[in-house]
C-alpha cells in the first residue's frame, strides 16, 4: 500500500514508497564493478527487487547501456583496460539522461586510481558514495595514509569534505559509516541504521552503492532522498539479519533474506533518517 508522506521530512513513508516502486518497476541496473563485489552486489539488487547486470566489456556498452535505468561504476579492482569501458558507459548514461553512481573504492591508494576517480567525478555522477577516507581523498585530490579499501576515518570526519565535494562536483555525496551522511552541499541528512558487523563482510559498501543506483533509477529527480532511503533500508536489513546471525558469514545470508522480505510495518518502525 502506498503511504502519503506528510511532509518532506516523513522519511519512513518516503523510504517505503521508494522500495515499493523499486519492487514494482524492477529497474535494470548496469554494474561495472570489482571482482570481489559482483556476487553480493547482484544478490543485493535482486533481493531488493531490481534487475542487476554485470556487463563491462567495452564492445557491449553501446548496445546495452542505453537500456539500463541506471549505472553503477565501482573502481575496486581497477585496471587500465577497464577504465575506457567505464567512461564509455558514463558518456552514454549522460547522453540518455540515466542516473549513475560512482563508488571510489580506495581512491587514495594509488595515483592511477586517484586520477581515474577524479576523472570520473568530473563526468557528473548523480551520486558519489564512499567511506570517510575515500571521500577525504577525493576532496583533497591526494593520496592518503591508506588502509586500502577500508576506512581509517569516521563518516563524520568527512562531513566538510563531503559538502565541498558535492558543491564542486554537483553530485550528491554520501559517506558511509556508523552514521551514513548524505549531502547536496547545502542540506545534510544522516541515516542511522545498520550494525557494525556489516563492516566485517566484504563488499557491503559496494552493495549499498548499487542499491543507491537502483533507488535513483526509480526517483532520479530526488537523488538525495533516494540515497538516504537506500542506506536506511540496507541498514535495516542488517539490523534484522543480525537478530539471526552468528557472525559475518551468516549475517551476509540473513541480510539478503531480510532485504527480500522487508515489509511495511518493519520498515516504518525501523527507518531512522534525520537532518544533521
Ligand atoms: N559502525 C557501523 N554501524 C552500523 N552500520 C555500519 C557501520 N559501519 C558501516 N556500516 C554500514 O555498512 C555498510 C558499508 O559501509 P562501509 O563499511 O563504510 O563501506 P566500505 O565497505 O565502502 O568501507 C553501509 O551500509 C554502512 O551504513
Ligand atoms: C577487498 C577488495 N579489494 C578490492 S575491491 C574490494 C572490495 C571492497 O568492498 P567494500 O568497499 O564494499 O568494502
Ligand atoms: Mg568501499
Automatic annotation (TrEMBL):
InterPro entries: Hyethyz_kinase, Ribokinase-like
Catalytic activity: 5-(2-hydroxyethyl)-4-methylthiazole + ATP = 4-methyl-5-(2-phosphooxyethyl)-thiazole + ADP + H(+)
GO MF entry, a single one: ATP binding
Pathway as given in its UniProt record: Cofactor biosynthesis; thiamine diphosphate biosynthesis; 4-methyl-5-(2-phosphoethyl)-thiazole from 5-(2-hydroxyethyl)-4-methylthiazole: step 1/1
Keyword Protease applies: no
Biological process according to GO: thiamine diphosphate biosynthetic process; thiamine salvage
EC top class named in words: transferase
Enzyme Commission number(s) of this protein: 2.7.1.50
Cofactor(s) it depends on: Mg(2+)
Listed Gene3D superfamilies: 3.40.1190.20
Short name of any one Pfam family annotated for the protein: HK
Keywords: ATP-binding, Kinase, Magnesium, Metal-binding, Nucleotide-binding, Thiamine biosynthesis, Transferase
Function: Thiazole kinase involved in thiamine salvage pathway.
HAMAP family assigned: Thz_kinase
Similarity annotation: Belongs to the Thz kinase family.
Full protein name: Hydroxyethylthiazole kinase
Organism lineage: Eukaryota, Viridiplantae, Streptophyta, Embryophyta, Tracheophyta
Amino acid at each position: 500500500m502506498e503511504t502519503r508522506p506528510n511532509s518532506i521530512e516523513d522519511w519512513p513513508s518516503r523510504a517505503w514508497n521508494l522500495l515499493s516502486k523499486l519492487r514494482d518497476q524492477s529497474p535494470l541496473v548496469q554494474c561495472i564493478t570489482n571482482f570481489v563485489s559482483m556476487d553480493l552486489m547482484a544478490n543485493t539488487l535482486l533481493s531488493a527487487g531490481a534487475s542487476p547486470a554485470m556487463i563491462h566489456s567495452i564492445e557491449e556498452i553501446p548496445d546495452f547501456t542505453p537500456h539500463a535505468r541506471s549505472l553503477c561504476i565501482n573502481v575496486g579492482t581497477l585496471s587500465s583496460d577497464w577504465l575506457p569501458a567505464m567512461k564509455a558507459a558514463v558518456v552514454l548514461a549522460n547522453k540518455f539522461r540515466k542516473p549513475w553512481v560512482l563508488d571510489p573504492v580506495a581512491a587514495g591508494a594509488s595515483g592511477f586510481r586517484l586520477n581515474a576517480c577524479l576523472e570520473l567525478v568530473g563526468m557528473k555522477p548523480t551520486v558519489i558514495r564512499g567511506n570517510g577516507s575515500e571521500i577525504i581523498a577525493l576532496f583533497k585530490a591526494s593520496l592518503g595514509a591508506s588502509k586500502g579499501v577500508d576506512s581509517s576515518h569516521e563518516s563524520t570526519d568527512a562531513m566538510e569534505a563531503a559538502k565541498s565535494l558535492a558543491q564542486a562536483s554537483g553530485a550528491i555525496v554520501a559517506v558511509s559509516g556508523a552514521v551514513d551522511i548524505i549531502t547536496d552541499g547545502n542540506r545534510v541528512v544522516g541515516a542511522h541504521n545498520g550494525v557494525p558487523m556489516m563492516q566485517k563482510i566484504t563488499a557491503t559498501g559496494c552493495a549499498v552503492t548499487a542499491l543507491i543506483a537502483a533507488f535513483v533509477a526509480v526517483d532520479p529527480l530526488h537523488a538525495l532522498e533516494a540515497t538516504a532511503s537506500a542506506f536506511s533500508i540496507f541498514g535495516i536489513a542488517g539490523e534484522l539479519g543480525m537478530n539471526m546471525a552468528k557472525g559475518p558469514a551468516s549475517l551476509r545470508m540473513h541480510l539478503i533474506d531480510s532485504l527480500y522480505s522487508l515489509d511495511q510495518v518493519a520498515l516504518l518502525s525501523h527507518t531512522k533518517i534525520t537532518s544533521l
